[in-house]
Amino acid sequence: MDGDSFARVTYFVLIALAIGGALITQARGNWGRFATQAATWGLIFVGVIAGYGLWSDIGPQLIPRQELIRGTGQIVLPRGPDGHFYVTAKIGGKPVEFVVDTGASTVVLSQRDARRLGFHPDQLNYAGRASTANGYVRTARVTLHDVQVGGLTVARVGASVNDGAMDGSLLGMTFLRRFSKVEIAGNRMVLTP
Fold first, then answer.
1. How do residues 2-50 score in pLDDT, each as one tens digit?
2. Which of 40, 72, 159, 192 is deepest in the core (most CB within 10 A)?
């Protein structure tokens, strides 16, 4: 058993002991009620463990992710539950989750993602301005050393860091224009190199 598995088992045992201790303290002579509550909590506990263990097997089917088609190099992105298309790109070897935005002229990083990539948002020069659905925001120009999506790696990609509140980063046209074709067919977006 590796250290990660041992930590998980220890965590579940401690939770079981805490719940068991609370039930025994409450029972105080009413052992029939205690047995019912213990059985209920035991089933809940087993259900949580089973669900946690099965998630790695069923998660990808419930929440489909990007797929690289070998041979063609195409990247197929399923439409997310919120209607957007998401892609995980590697920037300098670090994975960053993006919303694919063909309406964004540039790659736009949230301040959180910019920090993860080694930029210091509080020290950037926010001399640019961008129009968004929520109005105008200030932006700072940065250059990403390399951006990789599927088999396509592009060096020195221009990007902006958004000065406003932003949940996630946007993969805009400074990267998307490197694909020969970007098409939406039903609930899939296909990026062709």
1. 666 777 778 878 887 887 777 677 766 677 777 777 778 778 877 777 7
2. 159
Residue 71 has phi, psi (to 5 degrees) of 95, -55
**CA triple 87-88-94, angle to 5 deg:** 160
What are 193's two structure tokens?
Answer: 């190199």
Burial call 9-37: b when 16+ CB within 10 Å, e when fewer: eeeeeeeeeebeeebeeeeeeeeeebeeb
Judge if pTM exceeds 0.70: no
Longest dimension (CA), the chain: 75
**CB half-sphere exposure, 175, CA atoms < 13 A:** 33
